[in-house]
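queue> pop job 88
queue> type: inverse folding (structure -> sequence)
queue> payload:
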């Protein structure tokens, strides 16, 4: 399946929510010379699509107005990855280890939801022998959620 195609569809699906919240949403590539690469991977399309939709939706919901959310695809040898980077508040260090737990909601959050989005994304990643990691951005506000370990065809 083409990770690029799935990412394009996920970005397109989230574009209305991003526009309503005045968020700059885009798809980018870690290596600009690979913009024509389909990023073909061994994966179940529906699962990866749900994972991307959940992570992008979270990024948009927690990024303030006029913020930015980028989906960045990269390839290193036979490994393909996708990273969703936002300019939101990030997550406190004590909560980083908990936000992927089922039904966990950060204290004081105003966003609607059940606390299942990231838990589902982690399960999908594991089903693909991949890893989903969350890290606060260095030198600027926001969060980076990275899916690594996807194998190219």
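queue> result:
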């Amino acid at each position: 399946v083409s990770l690029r195609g799935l990412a394009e569809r996920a970005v397109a699906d989230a574009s209305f929510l991003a526009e309503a919240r005045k968020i700059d949403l885009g798809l980018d590539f870690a290596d600009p010379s690979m913009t024509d690469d389909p990023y073909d991977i061994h994966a179940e399309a529906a699962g990866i699509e749900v994972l991307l939709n959940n992570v992008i939706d979270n990024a948009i919901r927690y990024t303030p107005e006029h913020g930015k959310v980028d989906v960045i695809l990269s390839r290193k040898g036979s490994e393909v990855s996708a990273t969703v980077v936002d300019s939101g508040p990030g997550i406190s260090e004590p909560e980083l280890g908990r936000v992927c737990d089922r039904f966990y909601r950060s204290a004081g959050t105003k966003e609607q939801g059940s606390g299942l989005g990231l838990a589902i994304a982690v399960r999908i990643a594991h089903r693909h022998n991949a890893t989903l990691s969350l890290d606060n951005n260095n030198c600027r506000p926001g969060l980076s959620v990275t899916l690594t370990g996807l194998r190219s065809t």
